[in-house]
Amino acid sequence: MKIALFIPPLTQINTPYPATAYLKGFLKTTPYQDIFQADLGLELILAIFNKKNIAQLFDEAALKPNLSKNTTNILQLRHRYEFCIDTVIQFLQNKNPTLAHKICGSDYLPQASRFNALNDDIEWLFGSMGIHDRAKMLCTLFMEDIGDLIVEAICPYFGFSRYAEDIARSATSFSPILAQLEAPNNTLDNILIALLDKHILSEQPDLVILTIPFPGNVFGAFKAGQHIKNKYPHIKVSMGGGFPNTELRSLADARVFDFTDFISLDDGEKPLLNLLEFLDGKRDLSQLKRTFVRENNTVKYINGCTSPDIAHSNSGTPDYTGLLLDRYISMLEMANPMHRLWSDGRWNKLTVAHGCYWKKCSFCDISLDYIGRYEPASAVVLADKIETIIAQTGTTGFHFVDEAAPPLVLRDLALEILHRKLDISWWANIRFEKTFSNDLCTLLAASGCIAVTGGLEVASDRLLEMMEKGVSVQQVAQVANHFTQSGIMVHAYLMYGFPTQTAQETIDSLEVVRQLFEAGALQSAFWHRFSMTAHSPVGLNPDKYHVIKVGPEEGTFANNDLVHDDPKGADHDLYAEGLRTSLYNFMMANCLDWPVHDWFDFKTPKTKLPSNLIQKHITETTGNDSDKLKYKIIWLGNPPEFTVQSKNTKIEIESGNGKVSTKMDTLSAQFI
Question: What pTM did the predictor assign?
Fold first, then answer.
């Protein structure tokens, strides 16, 4: 049986979303090993951004009436866009590095509205960036200008990391998506279909699997399913991934199955294996696992398989073969070195542990399997996977995509990496656990850790306790400082609008963030508006958190995001722009001495926090130094060399003079 695994448009264009690689790695451990995978999102971008197709898009855009001044300007410069596009793509694929001098040193690139922010502040914006990074940012602006033209004149739901996201977000009814699917195809839809035809005719699959991690993949997945069911009705189609896992758990609209045959929930390995056995005549339909099907025009949920899920340690090694690894595009959306990791560079994705070891945060979907079932892998298994992936991809950068990577597992993995002398770079999502001591952070840095991301969330001790985050502002400050002092960059996920959050707490939270940047304990962050979801403790028990669920009524398609009132809280939407603008400046090390209430164009309370709060937290000591005696002592340098002068056989202590070689120098030392 031939299996095709597709990543529909669009997730990210700098590195493949790992779902298909995970499934392919698992399938290689089963009898079903005839597998093909492709990233339709990357291929769509490459098919759009080339000289031939850009010219066709410009021709189409020129026929549209009432275009904005910006789009008209781009069309007037079309000959320059067409001239530059192929070399810009090659440069962003790191295939033409010498072009950087040309880009930075002349008017090589045409410029539209995306370049307006540069003006005379380009040197301040770029700071100490090298010429390659400057050129990469200019090329990113060039690409975004073309993207603006596409959105206005060709396809209003285009984005570099999303495709028709708005019609899929909070879609309790399938009807809006269906209406868009039944509308005439636009140019981008036709390009996607042509790519799909090429792969199907070449590979002749019996089963097509579409992973749908985000709302921005939903329309692309269903457009692909629509084409397959219309043109290749003999091919079975299955869908799964993050969006179905959270949004489609109560799916009841039979029309969905005009575009797919199966939709599975949670971990895909066991449901996929059961599905393949069913299609192979080795299993009855009633014995599928966590799978929706349509029977007699009714949606039916089947979960008859009683065998457990595949253990995390036995799920195979992600297999990236078949993906166009040398053609991913690295864009530089922000000069901040930590923030750029999401869009710049290709990272091998790997999971240290399934689920979350904390699983208490009240805003999180802790009732679902991908959070609630915690299962770590051993350091040896993880290191074996790292070595296999390096040999397979030729890339030594890793992003551990855990909900929260466990500190002790990271410790053991770091020791195994050092033991095997693996030279890798890695970053991960963590909780700001007190376990991340100075010593542990030093060890992680020695093993190749370059950055961590973690949730500071509301930056308020009252609210952190209310959301059962399990950390305090003091603890976050100290742990973040441990990482940065070890040379590891830190990104904080921030949240505003949590139930009962007051205006004073919002301002004080921003002051905490300002001081963390001022102290050098944070390098990057992002504010998220609190969203109440159906599977979180807040969504399941809103009364406990003093919010009122006001909608929407449960529908037959996606049911997850909940609308709520917060009668005890502030008007949270008022603060969005001030929080966003201030944070952007903090990440650029700008305006850190401004009073935080100055970022808002309406009257707000002034902060009640002392100006040295975070610095005080950082310098405070917690715990007893004698506790360190319980730890294992690890020497990270070369083995010391010394000559024994005396030996006390009774207590077996050697003394002598010698030398210790470090990465930076050779030191004289006396051993007593």
Answer: 0.91
Separation of alpha carbons 622 and 387, rounded Å: 38
| Calpha distance 431→446 (Å, rounded) | 20
What are residue 126's phi and psi, to 5 degrees? -75, -25
Quickly count: other Cβ atoms within 10 Å of residue 518's Cβ: 16
Tokens linked to 328: 């991913």
Mean pLDDT of the chain: 90
Whether residue 559 contacts residue 527, with contact meaning beta carbons closer than 8 Å, is answered with: no
DSSP secondary structure string for all residues of 576-597: HHHHHHHHHHHHTT-STTS-GG
Name the residue type at position 631. Y
Residue 157 pLDDT:
87
- Let me know: does 655 contact 646? Beta carbons within 8 Å: yes
Percent of the chain with pLDDT over 70: 91
Using DSSP, state whether 220 is helix, strand or coil. helix
- What is the mean predicted confidence (pLDDT) over 34-51? 96
Using CA atoms, how far apart are residues 319 and 413, in angstroms rounded to an integer?
A: 21
Report residue 468's pLDDT band, with 50, 70 and 90 as the boundaries: very high
More confident residue, 170 or 541: 541
pLDDT value of residue 622: 61
Confidence band (pLDDT; 50, 70, 90) for 124?
A: low
| Residue 629 binned pLDDT confidence (cut-offs 50, 70, 90) | very low
204: left (phi over 0), alpha (psi -120 to 50) or beta: left
CA nearest to 305, candidates 320, 285, 289: 289
Buried b (16+ CB within 10 A) or exposed e, 229-259: beebeebbbbbbbbbbbbbbbbbbbbbbbeb
Question: Which CA distances in Å does 422 have to 126, 419, 634, 663?
Answer: 33, 8, 17, 16
Task: Give helix 576-587 / helix 503-518 axis angle, nearest 10°.
Answer: 10
Query: Phi and psi for 162 in degrees, rounded to 5?
Result: -160, 160
Q: Does residue 271 contact residue 288 with C-beta atoms inside 8 Å?
A: yes
- Asked if residue 397 lies in contact with residue 505, where contact means CB atoms within 8 angstroms, the answer is no
List alpha helices for 12-158, DSSP H: 19-27, 40-48, 51-62, 69-76, 78-92, 99-105, 122-126, 131-153
Amino acid of residue 364: C
Give the whole-angstrom CA distance, residue 464 versus residue 441.
Answer: 24
- Give strand pairing partners of 551: 563
**Beta bridge mates, 656:** 644, 671
The DSSP secondary-structure symbol of 650 reads: T
Say yes or no to pLDDT of 670 above 50: no
What is the enclosing helix (H) or strand (E) of 659? strand 653-661
| Contact (Cβ atoms closer than 8 angstroms) between residue 224 and residue 9 | no
